[in-house]
Design goal:
Helices cover 48% and strands 16% of the residues. It has 263 residues and is α/β, with parallel strands linked by helices. α1 links the parallel β3 and β4. The structure holds D-malate.
Length: 263
């Protein structure tokens, strides 16, 4: 079911009597990147996904975003839907938002699933790369940026063997408003570092990383997992940065086991 909360497009699947999981997508994607997880998990869980402000079906407004605003949006959705300590699941930028949400209000959640993400903030080189991306979008429009960025997120095997699905993700990403995409780039560049909170996390955490992830590789996620007392860390084969899309079967299995055994 689709609903609008605080201007944002929010999607619910499954019975609201079940334990809730709230999914936060990566950049420059939208809630549809979780389709394979939601199709499976909604049989036993109340699955809530939404489009982050500026992406998918949510409005870009003036494109002036911060991660704090994204966390405010997440909190608003949880309160509005009266979710009782949902499990939070975020990929990459969705992971930055999730980690900051946990740092701000861990008691609102019963578990955390981090896919292909990191706790550190952007270093100077990455900030300069983000500035270059904004310049490229201003000069050439959104499409060449999306072609390059999305290709880097996927492993070679997936692009070759699942061309239709890959092309669909690229074309969905090109539907975004350029203002929304640029606003997310600025928000990510200005985000805080959540590393110091990792050792304070008390709720169960599952970390998932694609073995071919070039953006947040397994060694980066492993060092995050080392700092979290409650962490379980898995590396998923045949996947790059978009693990839930590239190897949904394995990801679903890991999420199911985590929910069954730890939550
Ligand atoms: C994402 O997948 O959300 C992005 O790769 C995050 C980033 O650019 O830092």
């Amino acid at each position: 079911m689709k609903t609008t909360i605080n201007e944002l497009a929010v999607f619910t699947n499954g019975s609201d009597e079940n334990k809730a999981i709230i999914f936060v997508h990566g950049f420059p994607y939208d809630h549809r990147m979780w389709n394979a997880q939601i199709e499976e998990l909604s049989k036993n869980y109340y699955c809530v996904s939404y489009d982050i402000r500026g992406l998918g079906e949510s409005p870009a407004g003036d494109g002036q975003f911060t991660i704090e605003m994204f966390v405010d949006d997440l909190e608003y959705i949880i309160d509005k839907l009266r979710l009782d300590r949902p499990v939070l699941c975020g990929l990459s930028m969705g992971g930055y938002i999730s980690l900051r949400a946990i740092e701000r209000m861990e008691n609102k959640f019963s578990g955390l699933i981090l896919c292909d993400t990191k706790a550190s903030a952007d270093n100077n080189a990455v900030k300069i790369k983000r500035a270059g991306a904004i310049k490229k979008i201003n000069r050439e429009g959104l499409n060449p940026f999306v072609d390059e960025f999305v290709r880097n997120c996927f492993g070679d095997d997936f692009v070759r063997d699942h061309k239709e699905e890959y092309d669909r993700v690229v074309s969905h990403s090109k539907e975004n408003y350029p203002e929304g995409v640029k606003g997310c780039l600025l928000a990510m560049a200005a985000r805080t570092d959540t590393t110091s909170y990792l050792s304070k996390i008390a709720i169960p955490v599952l970390l998932i990383c694609g073995e071919e992830d070039k953006l947040t590789p397994p060694d980066v996620m492993m060092s995050m997992a080392d700092k979290i007392h409650t962490a379980e860390f898995v590396v998923v084969e045949k996947a790059g940065h978009m693990t839930p899309v590239e190897n949904s079967k394995e990801v679903n299995k890991h999420i199911y086991n985590f929910l069954k055994n730890s939550i």
